[in-house]
Amino acid sequence: QVRLMESGGDSVQAGGSLRLSCAHSEYTYSGYCMGWFRQAPGKEREQIATIDEDGSTNYADSVKGRFSISQDVAKSTVYLQMNDLQPEDTAMYYCVAGQNRLGGPPCSVWSSADFDYWGQGTQVAVSS
């Protein structure tokens, strides 16, 4: 069973930065796509960043240029660096992992249902 554990959520003022971490219990470079979703109260879940097994990354328009996803294979950890945070970034942030399907589409176009594993979430609150 793959387990994901997020950390790094906090309360910050607008313009501040945070780095979220996601420790993966059975990290493998091969075959997995990792990513981050977020969900704010009363809003739909939003995919904000993915990093595929080949290292390619993708971002939602709402965070492009401010957020950056990366991975440290040796530490079995995926990171989400968030800069210039704004109140609209306030949400619960979830780390996700999904196994690539042979011949399937890139994970940048996956829906939430395509990701097999989810963490418990870490809360980010941004005040103006």
How many runs of DSSP E, i.e. beta strands?
Answer: 11
Q: Encode the helix/strand succession as letters.
A: EEEEEEEEEEE
Number of helices: 0
Specify Rg, calculated over alpha carbons. 14 Å
* Averaged pLDDT: 92
For the largest beta-sheet, the strand count, sense and barrel status come to: 7 strands, mixed
Structural class: mainly beta
Helix share of residues? under 10%
What percentage of amino acids are in beta strands? over 45%
SSE inventory with pairings:
Layout: E1 4-7, E2 11-13, E3 18-24, E4 32-39, E5 46-51, E6 57-59, E7 67-72, E8 77-82, E9 91-99, E10 117-118, E11 122-127
Parallel strand pairs: 2-11
Antiparallel strand pairs: 1-3, 3-8, 4-5, 4-9, 5-6, 7-8, 9-10, 9-11
Describe the structure.
This protein has 128 residues and is mainly beta. It contains no helices and 11 strands. The protein is globular. The termini are far apart.
Summarize the model shown.
With 128 residues, the protein is mainly β. The protein is 0% helix and 47% strand.
Record keyword descriptors for this entry:
globular; 128 residues; 7-stranded mixed β-sheet; mainly beta; single chain; 11 strands; 4-stranded antiparallel β-sheet
